[in-house]
Design a protein that fits this description.
Chain B is mainly alpha-helical and 657 residues long. Chain B has 21 helices and 3 strands. Chain B has a two-stranded antiparallel sheet. In chain C, α1 packs antiparallel against α4, α1 runs parallel beside α5 and α2 runs antiparallel to α3. The chains are: A alpha+beta (259), B mainly alpha (657), C mainly alpha (184).
Chain lengths: 259, 657, 184
C-alpha cells in the first residue's frame, strides 16, 4: 500500500508536506464552519456578562481547531497512507527515538497555548464578569432556593417571595442567593453564568440583562436549578421576565402592595 | 520470587469441591450480615432494620465473606498457629476461588468489570429510552430514575473505569511484562479481588433500601437527608476502594522488587509505568475518599454533622470527594495511555517515540493531578480559588500533551497494521482528544460558569472515560486476547464493531455538547419540549453504540470458546509476555527471563530485548552484577530463580540510543 | 511450583515485605491526615472547655508502654527467647486494647457530643485509631501464639518486624492525635 523502501528520506518529506497541506486545509475549513454555523447560532443570550462566556467558548473553539486537526490528520493520514497488511511485520525504515526539533516545538506550542488560555479568555473574562460587581446601586434580588422551588424577593421595594423573576433590562442586578435545604444552582440559561446556592451561605452574582423577553418568548429565559437537588430537580424552574425600566416600575408599584 | 512462598501441592491436601468455598463465603457473609444486623437492632431496642444495623451487618457480613472465600484458611488460621492450607481449585473452578495466581485474578477482574459494564450500560440504554420524551414515562417514579443515574454512574466509575484496566490488565500483565512469576503479595491480591463482588452488589442492592437520589457524586447535604440506599452507596464505594488500595500496594511492590534481571527503570514497559503511577495515585487518594465515606456514614448513623446544612460544612464533602475524584480521572486515563503507547509500536513496527518524555509526562500528571480538584466546583467556590485552580488545570494539559507527542511521534511513518486493537487505539486517540479539548473549555472559568452541570459536562466526561479509557480497554482486550485465552478473535467482526462503536459513540455524545449549551441540565428525566428533538437523536445514536458493544461482546465471548488457536506471539510483539506460551503456565516463564535491551527497538539495528534462557542455563548478564559480600556462595545454582542485583538507579537503560 | 529461596532470596523477601508495610503506612496516613485537616477546618484551634485532660495522658502512657513491650518482643525474638517473646507480645496486645478502651471512655465525656464540630471529628479520628488498635492487638495475639510454637524464627521474624513498625506508626498517630486534639 505504501511506497516505503526506496528513499525513505524523500518519502518522509513528501508525507510531511502532504499532511501539512491537509492540516492547513482542514484548519481553514474548521474555522469557516465555526464562523458560519457556530458563531452566530448560540442559543438566546440576554445578559452582558453572559456574552463573556459565549466569547470564551467561541475563542476556545477557534483555538482548538488547529490542535484537533493536527491529531486528526496524523491519525487519518497514518490510517490511509502508512497502512500495510496485518501479517506484514517488516519494521518501519524510520526509527527515531527522539527528535529535538519536533519535541521542543511541541513543548513550546502546548505551553504557550496553556498559558494563553489562562490569561485569555480565563483571567480577562473573569475580570470582565467581576466588573459588574462594581456598578453602583444595583437592583438587589434575593433568591431563595428550596426543594423544589425558587422564590424571589426585592428588599428595595418590599416585594417578597414571588415565584416569578422580573428584572429590568440594562440595569445591573445583584442576585443574593441562599438555600433553605440542600445545594441548588441558580441558572438562567440565557444569562449564561450560574451560581450555586449553598445552605448556610450567601452567594452573590451580579448580572446585567440586556434583552427584553420572557420564558414564553424563549425557554432559555427561565430559572433552572442546575445542581442535582433531589427528586424534583428537573422541575425546579421558574419563569423569568426581562422588562423595560418603565414596565418594571409599573410592576413594582403593582406588586409591592402600595409602597 | 513471590513473598508468599506457598507450596501449591500442599494446598491440595484439603481439597474442596467445585463451588464449595464460594458457597461458604456466601453463607458466612449472609450469616454475618444477619447476625450483625439483628444484634445491633436488638441492642437498639428496634424490631426493624435500622441504618446502624445495616452498617454493622454489612461490616460483619463483609468480614464473613472474605473469611469464607479463603482468608480464614490462608490468613487467619495460620496466623494463630494453624495449618496453612487451601485449595485453589482445578480448571474453571479456579475463577470462583480464593486463587493467588495473578492471571486468574486478572481474569476475575476483567470478567467482573465486563459484567458490571454490561449491567450499567443496560441501565444507560433504559435511561436513553426514557429521555426520548420530556416526560417521565418509562420509569415508574422519579426515584427510580434517580436510582438509575446513581447506580449507572457509581458502577461505571468505581467498579469499571478504575478497576478494569488496573485490576484486570494490571494484575495479569504487570508480572508477565517484568518477567516475574507472580505479584509480590499473592494472598493480598486474591483478597483484593473478592472485595469487588460485594461492592458491586451493595450498589446494585441500594434500591431495596429506597435507593439514592444524589447520583455518583452524592453531594451533601442532600446525601445526608437521602433515603437509606445512600448507605449502600457509601459502603459499596468504600469496599471497591479497598480492592484498588490492595492492588496498588501489590503493583508498586511488584514493580519495584520483582523485575527480571536487566530490566532497569529505563527499560520498564510503558504500560507498567502507567500501572505504577496509577497505583501511586490510588495508594494516596483512595484512603482519603475512604475517610470521607466513613464521615458520610457517620452523619447518617453516628449523630455527627460533618456535612450538615446547619453546623456542618456541606462543601467539605465536595472538597474531599474531588480531592480523590480528580486524581481518579488520571487513575482512569493513565492506564489507557499506557495501552496506547504499548500497542502503537507493535502494530506500527516502529520504535516508541519519546519514551522518556512520555514517562516524564506520566510523572508530572501524577504530581499535578492532586492540585486541580476545585475546578469541579467553580460555580460554588470562593473567588480566591478560581484563578489558581483554572491555572493548574490548564497547565496539566502540557504533560497530557506529551502522551500525544509520543503517540504521534510513534505513529508517524510507521507501518500501520490496522488490526482491531490498533483501530480502537487510534479511535481512542481521537475521542479522548475531544474530551481533552472540551476540558480546556471547562477549565476556563467564564466558559465553565455556562457549561458546568449541563450536558456539556456529561458529553465531556463520557468522551474522556468512554472514548479514552473504555476504547483503550477494548483495544487491550483484543490485543492480549490471544495471550489470555490462547485463541484468536474474529478480525472482521472486530473491525466492523470498532467502526460502529466509533460512529455510534460520536453520534451519541457530540450532540450533547450542543444540548448542554442549549439549556439541558444534567441528571433530569423531564425537560422542556424544545429539547426533545436533540434528545431523540441522541437516543437513536445510543442504540447503535449499544449494538456495537454487543457485537464486541459476542466476538470476545464466541472467540474465547471457538476461536482458532493462537501462537505465543501472534502480533510479533517484543515485550516479555509474548515470550511465553498462550496462556502462560502457572509460573509464567519456565526460567526467569533476562532482559538485554528495552522493548521498543525496531529496525535492523535493534537488539532483541528479552529472552528466556534454556532451562538449566543461566546466561551472564551484559553488565556485571555487584553482589553483597558474603552472599556470593549462597547456592546460586543454575535453573533456580535467583534474585538478581540490578542497577535500579541506572535510568539510562536502552532508551537513549 | 515450590519456590526455593536462597539466602539472597530471603533478604529480598524481607525487603519486599517491609516495603509493602511502608506502602500500607503511607495509605494509612492518608486516612489520618485528612481527618486532622477536618478538625481544624470545622472546629478551628482550641477545644471545648471541660474536656478531660487526664485521660489522654493515661492513654499516651499505655500506648507508650505497649510499644515498649513490642520493642521487648522484638529483642527477645532476636535472642530467640520464644516464651519471653510471647509474653511481651501478649503484654503489647493487652496494653493496646487498654488504650482502645480508653478511647471508648473518652467518648462518654459529657463535654463532647458527636453533633458538635469538635466532637464529630474527635470521635472519628480516635475511633479509627482504636479500631486499628483492636485489629492490631488481635494480630499480635496471633503472633504470640506463633512465638510459643517457635514459629517466629526466619521468615516469621520479618512478620514480627512489620508488626513492630506498624505499632510504632500507631504510637506516632496517637501522639499526633494528642497534639491535634488536646494540645493545640
Amino acid at each position: 500500500m505504501t511506497d516505503q523502501p526506496s528513499g525513505p528520506q524523500t518519502n518522509a518529506r513528501r508525507h510531511l508536506l502532504w499532511a501539512a497541506v491537509i492540516w492547513l486545509a482542514l484548519t481553514v475549513a474548521g474555522v469557516v464552519v465555526v464562523r458560519l454555523w457556530v458563531a452566530d447560532s448560540f442559543p438566546l443570550l440576554a445578559s452582558e456578562e453572559g456574552a463573556v462566556a459565549d466569547d470564551a467558548i467561541l475563542f476556545l473553539s477557534y483555538l482548538v481547531i488547529p490542535v484537533f486537526m493536527f491529531v486528526l490528520v496524523a491519525v487519518g493520514y497514518a490510517m490511509a497512507r502508512f497502512r500495510v497488511h496485518p501479517d506484514d511485520t517488516i519494521d518501519s525504515p524510520s526509527q527515531p527515538r527522539t527528535h529535538r526539533g519536533y519535541t521542543m516545538t511541541w513543548l513550546g506550542v502546548t505551553s504557550a497555548l496553556a498559558v494563553l488560555v489562562i490569561i485569555h479568555p480565563g483571567i480577562t473574562g473573569l475580570a470582565e464578569i467581576w466588573d459588574a460587581r462594581d456598578e453602583p446601586d444595583p437592583l438587589v434580588v434575593e433568591v431563595t432556593a428550596q426543594q423544589w422551588e425558587w422564590s424571589f424577593s426585592y428588599p428595595d421595594y418590599g416585594i417578597e417571595n414571588r415565584a416569578e423573576l422580573v428584572v429590568p433590562v440594562g440595569e445591573p442586578v445583584r442576585f443574593v442567593i441562599t438555600s433553605e435545604d440542600v445545594i441548588h444552582s441558580f441558572w438562567i440559561p440565557a444569562f449564561r453564568i450560574k451560581q450555586d446556592a449553598v445552605p448556610g451561605a450567601t452567594m452573590e452574582l451580579t448580572l446585567t440583562p440586556d434583552r427584553v423577553g420572557n420564558t414564553g418568548s424563549s425557554e432559555m429565559l427561565r430559572v433552572q436549578c442546575a445542581e442535582l437537588c433531589g427528586l424534583g430537580h428537573a422541575e425546579m424552574a421558574a419563569e423569568v421576565r426581562v422588562v423595560t425600566a418603565a414596565e418594571f416600575e409599573q410592576w413594582t408599584a403593582g406588586a409591592g402592595g402600595g409602597m | 520470587m513471590t513473598v508468599d512462598t506457598v507450596d501449591v501441592e500442599n494446598r491440595r491436601t484439603r481439597p474442596a469441591a467445585g463451588l464449595a468455598p464460594l458457597a461458604r463465603a456466601i453463607l458466612w457473609g449472609v450469616a454475618g450480615f444477619a447476625g450483625g444486623a439483628l444484634v445491633t437492632a436488638a441492642l437498639q431496642g428496634e424490631r426493624r432494620l435500622t441504618e446502624l444495623a445495616v452498617v454493622i451487618g454489612y461490616v460483619v457480613g463483609l468480614a464473613g465473606w472474605q473469611l469464607g472465600i479463603g482468608n480464614w484458611d490462608a490468613v487467619v488460621r495460620p496466623l494463630f498457629g494453624g495449618s496453612e492450607q487451601w485449595d485453589e481449585g482445578p480448571g474453571r473452578w479456579r475463577y470462583f476461588r480464593f486463587n493467588t495466581d495473578h492471571k486468574v485474578i486478572g481474569l476475575q477482574y476483567l470478567v467482573t468489570a465486563g459484567v458490571t459494564f454490561a449491567l450499567a450500560g443496560l441501565l444507560a440504554m433504559v435511561m436513553r429510552s426514557e429521555l426520548t420524551i420530556g416526560e417521565l414515562t418509562l420509569f415508574p417514579t422519579a426515584q427510580a430514575y434517580h436510582n438509575a443515574i446513581g447506580i449507572h454512574g457509581t458502577l461505571m466509575v468505581f467498579a469499571v473505569a478504575v478497576v478494569a484496566i488496573v485490576g484486570g490488565f494490571g494484575n495479569y500483565f504487570v508480572p508477565l511484562m517484568i518477567g516475574a512469576e507472580d505479584m509480590a503479595f499473592p494472598r493480598v491480591n486474591a483478597t483484593s479481588y473478592w472485595f469487588i463482588p460485594p461492592g458491586v452488589l451493595a450498589i446494585i442492592a441500594s434500591p431495596f433500601l429506597g435507593g439514592f437520589q444524589g447520583g455518583w457524586t452524592a453531594y451533601q447535604p442532600l446525601a445526608a437527608d437521602d433515603t437509606s440506599g445512600q448507605l449502600l452507596y457509601y459502603l459499596g464505594v468504600y469496599t471497591l476502594g479497598l480492592a484498588s488500595l490492595l492492588t496498588a500496594i501489590n503493583v508498586i511492590a511488584t514493580t519495584v522488587f520483582m523485575r527480571a534481571p536487566g530490566l532497569t527503570w529505563g527499560r520498564l514497559p510503558i504500560f507498567v509505568w502507567a500501572m505504577l503511577v496509577t497505583s501511586i495515585l490510588n495508594l494516596i487518594w483512595v484512603p482519603e475518599i475512604g475517610a470521607a465515606m466513613v464521615m458520610g456514614v457517620l452523619d447518617r448513623v453516628g449523630g455527627t454533622q460533618f456535612f450538615a446544612a446547619d453546623g456542618g460544612l456541606p462543601l467539605l464533602w465536595q472538597d474531599m470527594f474531588w480531592l480523590f475524584g480528580h486524581p481518579e480521572v488520571y487513575i482512569i486515563m493513565l492506564t489507557a495511555w499506557g495501552l496506547w503507547l504499548e500497542i502503537l509500536p507493535v502494530m506500527g513496527r516502529k520504535t516508541l517515540f519519546g519514551y522518556r518524555w512520555a514517562v516524564g509526562g506520566f510523572l508530572a500528571i501524577t504530581l499535578m493531578s492532586s492540585i486541580v480538584w476545585a475546578h469541579h466546583m467553580f460555580s460554588t467556590s470562593a473567588d480566591s480559588r478560581l484563578i489558581p485552580f483554572m491555572s493548574t488545570t490548564e497547565l496539566i494539559s502540557i504533560p497530557t500533551g506529551l502522551v500525544y507527542l509520543s503517540a504521534i511521534g510513534t505513529l508517524w511513518l510507521s507501518r500501520v497494521r490496522l488490526t482491531t486493537p490498533m483501530l480502537l487505539i487510534l479511535f481512542s486517540m481521537l475521542t479522548f482528544l475531544i474530551g481533552g479539548v472540551t476540558g480546556v473549555f471547562l477549565a476556563d472559568v467564564p466558559a465553565d460558569f455556562y457549561a458546568t452541570d449541563t450536558y456539556f459536562v456529561v458529553a465531556h466526561f463520557h468522551y474522556v472515560i468512554v472514548g479514552g479509557m473504555i476504547f483503550a480497554w477494548l483495544a487491550g482486550l483484543y490485543y492480549w486476547f490471544p495471550k489470555y485465552t490462547g485463541r484468536m478473535f474474529n478480525e472482521r467482526l472486530g473491525k466492523v464493531a470498532a467502526w460502529l462503536l466509533f460512529i455510534g459513540f460520536n453520534a451519541t455524545f457530540l450532540p450533547m455538547f450542543f444540548a448542554g449549551l442549549g439549556g439541558m441540565n444534567r441528571r433530569i428525566a423531564t425537560f422542556m419540549p424544545y429539547l426533545e428533538p436533540v434528545n431523540i437523536a441522541i437516543s437513536i445514536a445510543a442504540a447503535f453504540l449499544g449494538i456495537a458493544l454487543v457485537l464486541h461482546l459476542i466476538n470476545l465471548v464466541y472467540s474465547w470458546a471457538n476461536g482458532p488457536r493462537a501462537g505465543r506471539n501472534p502480533w510479533a510483539g517484543k515485550t516479555l509476555e509474548w515470550e511465553t506460551s498462550s496462556p502462560p503456565p502457572r509460573e509464567n516463564f519456565e526460567v526467569e527471563p533476562l532482559v538485554l535491551a528495552d522493548f521498543y527497538g525496531y529496525g535492523h539495528t535493534a537488539a532483541e530485548p528479552g529472552m528466556v534462557p534454556l532451562p538449566g542455563v543461566r546466561p551472564r548478564p551484559l553488565e556485571p552484577e555487584p553482589r553483597p559480600a558474603g552472599l556470593e556462595a549462597a547456592g546460586l545454582t543454575g535453573g533456580q530463580r535467583q534474585s538478581p542485583q540490578r542497577h535500579d538507579s541506572d535510568g539510562d537503560g536502552g532508551a537513549s540510543r | 511450583m515450590t519456590v526455593s529461596t536462597g539466602v539472597l532470596g530471603e533478604e529480598r523477601h524481607r525487603r519486599v515485605r517491609l516495603f509493602g508495610l511502608a506502602l500500607l503506612v503511607v495509605a494509612e496516613s492518608m486516612i489520618f491526615v485528612p481527618l486532622f485537616a477536618v478538625r481544624f477546618l470545622t472546629a478551628g484551634t482550641g477545644q471545648p472547655a471541660n474536656v478531660d485532660g487526664v485521660l489522654p495522658v493515661l492513654m499516651t502512657a499505655t500506648m507508650v508502654a505497649s510499644f515498649v513491650a513490642m520493642y521487648g518482643a522484638r529483642r527477645m525474638a532476636q535472642q530467640e527467647r520464644w516464651p519471653s517473646t510471647a509474653a511481651a507480645l501478649w503484654t503489647a496486645a493487652l496494653l493496646g486494647l487498654v488504650t482502645a478502651l480508653g478511647a471508648g471512655i473518652g467518648w462518654s465525656d459529657p463535654a463532647l457530643n458527636a453533633g458538635s464540630s469538635y466532637g464529630g471529628v474527635f470521635y472519628v479520628t480516635t475511633g479509627a485509631h482504636a479500631a486499628h488498635l483492636v485489629l492490631g492487638s488481635a494480630f499480635l495475639a496471633g503472633l504470640a501464639v506463633q512465638a510459643r510454637q517457635g514459629r517466629l524464627a526466619g521468615e516469621g521474624r520479618t512478620t514480627l518486624d512489620c508488626a513492630y513498625w506498624f505499632w510504632a506508626f500507631l504510637l506516632i498517630v496517637w501522639v499526633a492525635i494528642d497534639v491535634v486534639f488536646y494540645l493545640v
